[in-house]
């Protein structure tokens, strides 16, 4: 058999990967689509922004609670059945959300949606890792698609819906996607036996670890101009205290903990998890600042601002085939280091843009940055599981998802606060008049710090595997 034929992914395995991706598509798009609808929902329900904001917050918080349950479900139940029920929960939440007669019903539906999404997203990665075998790297290029493209294309789809039909369609659009995923699960997803039925459910560990995540994320929800204030202090302190207690619990619980501490003995897992936290902050933070730039400095509508981000998505998508080859040729560590040149270079270029910069130049910067982001994310996502036994994969995925959610929430919030602080500095200390130019100057400050965070990925990058390690 030729080398080319040996490397070809079997059609059954490829079909399984696409079914898993289809199942993760709606949950990954949903969060960013809903954010576009929030201003409209304030007027629809005749209430305050802080009340409507719970539509997004409830989803995010419930995801944090649900993620630790995903590993236990895959350890004790057939993976095909567990993924099916996770999809059904998300689908029920979407239908109830679309039919909600008032805001309280909608927030309750978002809790159901968030729980379903918190199960679907880690299961998506876990099931792939467990089934892919030697084809893991190739299939990760497919499975990572909704995770990377969701933040870019979600606002576009949400904007198109809000410009064309009523807000209910933000949720109705999930129904055919989830229904197709359920059909695909019955049709193409093979039976996946439970991985470790003897492992007991770590209720205390799940409560501690889930409490740590939700407390810290809720603090971000409550934050206004600073993360450390009277509203956030109790939740930050509670979250950190729960994490310390969890570490003590996991030490004595050993392999039966919801996130066993022995996983941190895998260097590539530690390096990849830390790298993913930083990369998530950089990607989400860049998207946030660019959207703000296009709307506040250029006067774009929300939908046109989302359109302006398309070159970045195209760069990410086109880099996929190249990324797989480069992972094999260069190794994870070297590929991440090389790709950071594109990401840091793109962010450095964005520190020079203002309200007069050519859109062609900005599009070129975003396209190149998109290539860099893809070729940083993919090795990190793949290398998290290098050398890891299959039975450890569900718990490892719980760790990467929780830390990414918490780190991403705090990092993005901090970047937004840095921009706000710089804007205040320019208006007060420098005595500038508020204008699109001043807003652009403040955003340049944010891009600078995102570049610093991107460069910091080099540090955990040294823990990643080299060329010859698989």
TrEMBL record:
The keyword Protease does not apply. The chain crosses the membrane at residues 12-34, 54-74, 81-99, 105-129, 141-163, 169-189, 201-221, 233-252, 264-285, 305-323, 335-353, 359-381, 402-427, 447-465. It is a multi-pass membrane protein. InterPro entries: EmrB-like, MFS, MFS_dom, MFS_trans_sf. It is found in: Cell membrane. It comes from Leuconostoc citreum (strain KM20). One of its GO terms (cellular component) is plasma membrane. This is Transport protein. Signal peptide: none annotated. GO terms for molecular function: transmembrane transporter activity. Gene3D superfamilies: MFS general substrate transporter like domains, Multidrug resistance protein D. Keywords: Cell membrane, Membrane, Transmembrane, Transmembrane helix, Transport. Residues 16-469 form the Major facilitator superfamily (MFS) profile domain. Pfam families: MFS_1.
